Amino acid sequence: MSKHQQIRKSIISVVSAVCGLVLIGAGVARAGGPLSEEQILNALTPPAPPIAHTRTLSLPPEQDPDQKNFIKGLRSNEMRPRGLTLDERNEVADIARQRPAVDLEIYFDYNSSEIAAKAVPDLMNLGRALTNPNIQGGVFLVGGYTDAKGGQDYNQPLFERRAQSVRQFLIQNFRIAPDSLVATGYGKDHLKNQADPFAAENRRVQVTNLQSKQEAEK
Predict the structure, then answer these.
(1) Residue 143: pLDDT above 80?
(2) Cβ contact 210:141 at 8 Å
(3) Of 71, 98, 165, 191, which residue is least crowded by CB atoms under 10 Å?
């Protein structure tokens, strides 16, 4: 084997090792690398309301009262030992589709809810973004997703625990109010890429700005 071939083989081995790291859904890192604090903040910041021709601010539409009450119920029950029910998971997913969100890659140890050391810088960026004055005080959903591999009975409890691990990390390290973070696991429900159920983009943590501080206070 030539020296060039040996170098190429070594590079492939390194790439394969990186790809073997486990995410919340056992995926691989994006080519573009982790998101910065600023990128996360921009993704989770609701768009500014347009300025009317009368030079007065045009207020954003009111959040649906049923949605507000549902989110309020989630916040008041955030310390309950069980996870969200199937109906609750589906309802919060419907709300999340209409809200600012960002997909992140959070690494875990294999078959574990222990956050891997590699994931800490990404979670620090997330924590700093969530405590930025522009969005601080809102209600955020931490959802764990995977692809179509594996059984739901096995995946669901694992992703529940992993989502809770992310939530606890943010509470402990950034003093975010516990009732401002709702965590749940979706397993392979709500695939991002329906056309390719096994695509890597389906394996992710999605953080969603469910409700701004201003909406929660109304």
Answers:
(1) yes
(2) yes
(3) 98
Percentages helix, strand, coil for the chain (3-state, rounded to 5) are 45, 15, 40
3-state secondary structure of 107: strand
Which pLDDT tens digit goes with each residue over 57-115? 444 456 788 888 889 888 876 555 456 888 898 898 899 888 999 988 888 777 788 88
- CA 146 – CA 202 distance, rounded (Å): 6
Question: CA 9, 13, 14, 15 torsion: positive or negative?
Answer: positive
CA distances from 189 to 27, 140, 163, 194 (A): 16, 19, 15, 10
Other C-beta atoms lying within 10 Å of the C-beta of residue 189: 17
* DSSP symbols for 168-210: HHHHHHH---GGGEEEEEEETSS-S-TT-TT-GGGSEEEEEEE
**pTM for the structure as a whole:** 0.73
Cβ-based neighbour number of residue 120 at 10 Å? 14
Give the H or E element holding residue 95. Answer: helix 86-96
Q: What CATH number does residue 200 fall under?
A: 3.30.1330.60
Query: What is the number of structural domains in the chain?
Result: 1
Confidence of residue 124 (pLDDT cuts 50, 70, 90): very high
The pLDDT mean for the chain works out to 75
